[in-house]
Amino acid sequence: MKRRFRYCVGTAGVVLAALCMIFTLAFAQNLPRTGGKVPGPVAGGFDQVHELPPGGPAPRTADGHPDLSGRWYPNGAGRMLQVAYPVDPVVFRQFDAKAMPEEPPSFKPGLPAKYTRRLPYGICDQAGTPSTTLEQISQHAPMELIQSPGRLVMLDEYPLDVRMIYTNGRAHPKDPDPTFNGDSAAHWEGDTLIVDVIAIDERLRVITGVDGSGWFPSDQEHVVERFSRPSKNYLIYQVTIDDPVVLAKPWKSAPRRWSLAQSPNDEWGEVFCTLNQEPEEYKRITEHDAKAKGK
Known about the structure:
Blueprint: E1 4-6, H1 14-25, E2 70-73, H2 89-92, H3 131-134, H4 136-139, E3 143-148, E4 151-156, E5 161-166, E6 183-189, E7 192-198, E8 206-207, E9 214-215, E10 222-231, E11 234-242, E12 251-252, E13 256-260, E14 271-273, H5 279-294
Parallel strand pairs: 1-14
Antiparallel strand pairs: 2-3, 2-13, 3-4, 4-5, 6-7, 7-10, 8-9, 10-11, 11-12, 11-13
């Protein structure tokens, strides 16, 4: 078996950097190739992919709340989608940009460049809140939710991340230590789980858009997430980010839909990103791959 790695090179040459950029852009949300008909059968049956029906009412837990548990994909198909195949854009997208547009972030005038600097090619995405969930609009990786009394476990396949959201009425500590996932305090408002997040590490770059654009937060960043399950096959995730140091006004995402995995054989996969900016590290990886192919 082969491990799945994602890696792009930042300093190993202009050509490799360009290839890395092309690879990254190929996974952009709302950019599936739909023109033309592919001759012959399509691998994976992507030409037969359709939008899932609601699937009936959402299951509920013993306390009456919607059960958010499941393996979820950031599209309407209930499976991993690849933009190289002719998938219907309606199935592919997380939200309708015309009906529910997302405004770009509005930054404070004269904001220091340290907050809006871009990451160089070759640096892997950092797992954390809310970037890990929001960036799947372009990365397309699934997440798995496990709901039990008092907490919601959130597992992200890429970048590998484990997060505990406590739903037992727990309040924020008075002086929490900053972490990449921050400190979460959750409660239910009707059928929507509201997750209030503070103490997010300033080194985590906030990634929100299709093109990977984002910014670095201040220590005053405040995130509010909303999870709802309107039907069996769909989960809705929406987030509001407030940062009085960086943002002129809070940024709010569109309600982004996720679909329930449909195959009983759909299992968790490990996708590990390597930090290989140095040419010697890239050489070592390529030599390893070449030897593996020769076996």
